[in-house]
Amino acid sequence: MIALALAAHADRFARRHHIECRLASGVALTFDDGPHPEGTPAVLEALAAGGATATFFVVGEQVRRRPELVRRIVAAGHEVALHGDRHVLLLRRRPAELAADFDRALATVADAAGFEPRLYRPPYGVFSPWALREVRRRGWRPLLWSAWGRDWERRATPASIARRAARGLAAGAVVLLHDSDAYSSADSWRRTAAALPSLLEAAASSSLACVSVTQAT
What are 147's strand-pairing partners? Predict the structure, then answer.
């Protein structure tokens, strides 16, 4: 998929345009593409068992299907952030379409969460120049990542996800994972949830706390 190939080069774009990929402290576990009726509860359970806090970049169209899961994320002490209203590559969106997508995402997520998130990550981790300008015009904070588990891949296993996500794990890392298979291989969330205990153990063994983005800032 071209979007995933582009995402692999997100770090170069981020450096050029001063988009955060790392934070000041801790390890920020981030989950994209939800909420998901099975994946999100499974991830929440694994995080609770490990005493970790995370950030969930939710998609408006998924939130409208299950707003109660956003409330559950917030009630558990985790952070909710924006991942757009539809999971579409921003390079394919015209400025007017982007503005409408952002408006609807914000309204939907704010209604479910009870507040307006200001943290944003684009679908596939790919910004267009006009999308980045619009994000900053709104006063939102764009964020990408410094590590990922590639948990969307069909051949991924819990072991491969944990190994990739923990590679070079250090203070300030932002780890990209997914609590939903809505836009990836079927049941990918199962492998992600199963990988979390090993990933949390790797962080703990290095005396790194897994926290939300805001806590790590």
Answer: 175
- Catalytic member of 32, 101, 179, 181: 32
> Choosing from 33, 151, 178, 179, which is the catalytic residue?
178
CATH code of 176's domain: 3.20.20.370
Could you report the average pLDDT of every consecutive run of 10 residues in the chain (217 residues)?
44 77 94 98 98 98 98 98 95 89 98 97 92 95 95 96 94 97 96 98 95 92
The answer to whether residue 178 is catalytic is yes
pTM, to two decimals: 0.94
**Does 36 participate in catalysis according to the annotation?**
no
pLDDT at residue 10 in the model:
57
Query: Considering its fold, how many domains does the chain have in total?
Result: 1
Sign of CA dihedral 171, 174, 175, 178: positive
Which residues, including other chains, have CB under 8 Å from residue 163's CB and lie 6 or more apart?
Answer: none
Domain that holds residue 202: 2-216
